[in-house]
Structure formats: C-alpha cells, structure tokens
Design a protein that fits this description.
Two copies of one chain form a homodimer. By secondary structure, chain A is of the alpha+beta class. Chain A has five helices and three strands. Chain A has a three-stranded antiparallel sheet. In chain A, strand 2 and strand 3 form a beta hairpin. Chain A binds a DNA duplex through helix 4.
DNA sequence: GAACTAGATAACCAGATAGCTAAATGGTTG
DNA sequence: CAACCATTTAGCTATCTGGTTATCTAGTTC
C-alpha cells in the first residue's frame, strides 16, 4: 500500500499528529516505563516525579491516539502499551541521532 | 547499543525533539517533495502553496536537525534530504495508523 | 451512608511556534 | 554601481499545549 504522491495535506496531518504525540519527553518516559508491563497512574507519576493530573492527561492523549489502553480495576487504572511499534520508532530515531552526531564530529575533524 | 532504562530525561528530550520536527504537516509535505531529489525553495513553496519565507524557515529547522542539507548555487538554494531514515519512520507511522483504524473498525463491528 | 482514595476533568497561565508581511542579505547582470 | 532576483531574517499575531491547582467522579471501606 504505497503512500499517495504528492502526499495529501490530510494524510500529512494525520502522520504529523502521531509524531506530535511522540514529540514530548514526558510521554516518551511514560512509554519507557510502560515497556515493562502495565502500571497505574500514581505509580508512573511518582516514578517520573510529576503530578497524577499531568500523567493522567498524557495517558489520556496517548489512549486517544491508540498508543496505550486502559483497564480499570477497583480504584486503580492500569495502562498498557497497545501499539508497540512506538518502540521501533524510538530506536530508529536514536539511530539517526547517533549517525548525525557522528557525521558532525567527523566534519569537525576534517575541517580542523 | 541499548537505550538506558529508565530513559534519562535528556535522551527523552533529544528523541522528542526529533519527533517534534516531524510533527508538522508542512514539513512532511516538503520531505515528500524532496523524495524525488533536490529542489529549490521557491520551487517547493509554489508547489505547496505558501510563502517562500515560510518554506525557508521550515527547511532551516530541518537542516539544523540534520534531516536536510543545503547547497547554494548562484541565486538558488538547493535542498536535499540527508537522513533518508525519515521515510522509514513515516512508513511505519502509516502502518500503525492503519492498524489502529482497522482495530477500531473491528471493535465497532463486534459491539454492534 | 460517611470518610477516604485513585483518577479524571476544568480552569488557568506561560512558553513555544506556524504563519504572515516587510525588510535585509547575497549573488547576478546590465 | 544600479536594478534585480532568490533566499533569509525580523517582527508580529494567533493558536496550541504542558504544567499547575482546584474540583469532580467513581469505587472502596468502615
């Protein structure tokens, strides 16, 4: 299933929206903590060091985006990552960052 | 080279920043147009339908991020994608979006 | 049902940013 | 060097959003 070319504004917006969800460090840290399995809001909040209200908002946003899902049990809400492709994305971005840093270091050397 | 766990705030910010660069539909459309090879600013601007000033700013931002590089020749500035991994990222995101849409459609059917 | 707890939501503020117009820069050509 | 051209930058506005505090909801326990 190839992408339309030129990319339509609508599809560009849909893809961009997903990137925006991932473009926030607190959310990436939450996803990282969730890599070990489901966790509660308060648990995540205390580990990250911010308010439960804030964490709840981030998780709700990611749930809307289809990245995490929620399971209620008693007083607690357990969140789990439903789209594990996000970890691949993060890994690939790290690869790019490393490659760019290396290239810049090399160009500094040859200019010197 | 594994990522540190838990993800440090600094690395989370670095990864998030790259996602933010991609989290803008106009930039994604520019990258799509650049998939065919290098193009000038005015060329890209007229194809997308916005001001050259705006396109120039977007391209400068992506150049800072190491995604595109610039080549000046006479009056023109030719931009080209230097980190082609961005196309992989977009493709993966499209895959996720499709999977999520399918899953939601399926859950609608079974609830009905 | 009253007190308590976990989580969600509302209202608000501060900072970031995409877009515009206008002005500046750098290169070319008469 | 003067006119011109493509690109960049500056200044501005409107919008969006991450974080906070305060309030509300829902489930538990006594």
């Amino acid at each position: 299933m190839p992408l339309p070319s030129p990319l339509t504004p609508e599809l560009a917006e849909a893809i961009a929206e997903r990137f925006r969800v991932l473009g926030e460090p607190t959310r990436l840290r939450l996803l990282d903590l969730l890599a070990g399995g489901e966790r509660t809001v308060g648990d995540l909040a205390s580990e990250i060091g911010c308010t439960t209200a804030n964490v709840s908002k981030h998780l709700a946003l990611m749930a809307d985006a289809g990245i995490v899902t929620r399971r209620r049990s008693g007083l607690h809400a357990y969140y789990v990552v439903s789209d594990t492709a996000v970890y691949e994305l993060c890994g690939q971005v790290c690869g790019s960052l490393r490659a760019i840093a290396d290239a810049r270091a090399a160009s500094l050397r040859e200019t010197a």
